[in-house]
Amino acid sequence: MPKLYFFTLIMLLHAASTFSRHPPQQVSEAAGGYSTRRQLDTDQCRTGNPIDDCWRCDPEWDTNRKRLADCAVGFGKDAIGGRDGELYVVTDSGNDDPLNPIPGTLRHAAVQEEPIWIIFDHDMVITLNEQLLVNSHKTIDGRGHNIQIAHGPCITLRNVSNIIIHNIYIHDCLPSGYSRVWGLSPQFAISGGSDGDGISIFGSRDVWVDHCTLANCYDGLIDATYGSTSITISNNYMLHHNEVMLMGHSDEFLDDKNMQVTIAFNFFGEGLVQRMPRCRHGYFHILNNVYSSWEMYAIGGSANPTINSQGNVFIASDNNYAKEASFNQVTKRENSLSADWKSWNWRSEGDMMLNGAFFTPSGEEGAESYIRASSMVAKPVSLLTKTSQYAGTLGCKVGHEC
Question: Cα separation of 126 and 34, whole Å?
């Protein structure tokens, strides 16, 4: 084994064990407002992750929060969230009223018609009574505090655009039934219920989910369906879950053929089984993620999606049973015979396969076949030994680099 690969393996295995022992820290500090952007001269703190290098070196990040809106990459790069609106400070972690949201609550902020950048004034565990329907042009920014959404229905993006969800710990999400919730027109609407996803993206576009930790939800951690597109899922830490991410509603739903999703710089940690992601139709750029292990497969799909896997590290399980059951496979095609899926464009370029992991490519090899599944330049896998430890929620302290 080349020395560089051996060193990288040791570092990545250490990172995986560190995540297992020490979940991402959450730090309670007062959150500041927004001031004009300033040029940073802090190259020494940069990691090579283009998202983090855009804003994390700023010791005044809390007064320059909206700088984050300029830092998205990939297919969701145009998601500006609530950049053009006012700050809204959530002060009340309880009192969730789905029909008449109370000022100071997350729900009241999320349903406003105008652009809003949502922040929090103290550590909170928010348990929602019904799914949180987030309106267009919203940022939910948990930096500076331990912000959790848990033990109830979680976040739904339904037919909206320009959403940023950042630095939130989302876990133990539950389904919700049909109910009345506040809506723009009429003043109330009938919610169609939710499946128990951490974040459900339904018929929406220009969405960016960054630096969140997601675990142990009833259905998916992040699902995107019904024609959603222009999405980036980055720098998240996912753990203890079965069906992690579903991209595409069904094999028969052809509107998902235009879906484009970037999945970058995430850490897929312990206790994950499958769907990282599972894709239907559409175009998926999966790059610079670390897969520490899986019980069934990492990347799967049906209905001829285009999958462009670049610069990822796949570390297969040490479990002897998993090895005997061929769970070292990274890829899985579903609902198709080999005669069909052999024409699907799935490629692995610059990926590192460790501990017996293997990727089964198919279709064309030429770069021109992956143009619509290419959203940014992949970094070399050696970079991930430095960046993977920062996936998930960040322990940002006011007055310090984050």
Answer: 24
Q: For residue 277, which phi and psi values (nearest 5 degrees)?
A: -110, 180
What is the β-pairing status of strands 179-182 and 188-191?
antiparallel
What is the DSSP annotation of 311-355?
S-EEE----HHHHHTTTTBSEEE-S--HHHHTTS-EEEES-EEET
Selected catalytic residue, list 56, 275, 278, 333: 275
Cα–Cα distance between 340 and 310 in angstroms, integer?
Answer: 24
Residue 96 CB contacts under 8 Å (≥ 6 apart), including other chains:
105, 106, 107, 126, 127, 128, 129, 130
CA distances from 151 to 127, 129, 208, 393 (A): 6, 10, 23, 18
3-state class percentages of the chain: helix first, strand second, coil last, to nearest 5: 20, 30, 50
What CATH number should be reported for the domain holding residue 288? 2.160.20.10
d(CA 261, CA 77): 11
Type of residue numbered 387: T
Residue 172 resides in a domain: yes
Asked whether residue 311 is assigned to any structural domain, the reply reads: yes
How many domains is the chain partitioned into structurally? 1
Q: Is 275 a catalytic residue?
A: yes
Q: Which helix (H) or strand (E) holds 8?
A: helix 3-21
Residues 153 and 131: beta-carbon distance below 8 Å: yes
Does residue 33 sit in helix, strand or coil? Answer: coil
In a domain, residue 109? The reply is yes
Q: What angle do CA 267, 270, 275 make, to 5 degrees?
A: 70
Q: Is residue 402 part of a domain?
A: no
Q: Is the peptide bond before 103 cis (omega within 30 degrees of 0)?
A: no
Q: How far is CA 149 from CA 109, 115, 155, 216, 384, in A?
A: 15, 22, 9, 12, 28
pTM for this predicted structure: 0.90
**pLDDT by 10-residue block (mean), the chain, 402 residues:** 48 52 33 30 75 96 97 98 98 94 97 97 97 96 98 96 98 86 56 86 98 97 98 98 97 95 98 97 98 94 98 88 66 88 97 95 95 98 92 93 90
> Which H or E run contains 86?
strand 86-90
Residue 98 token pair: 């789905």
Query: Can you give the residue range of the structural domain that contains 318?
Result: 3-390
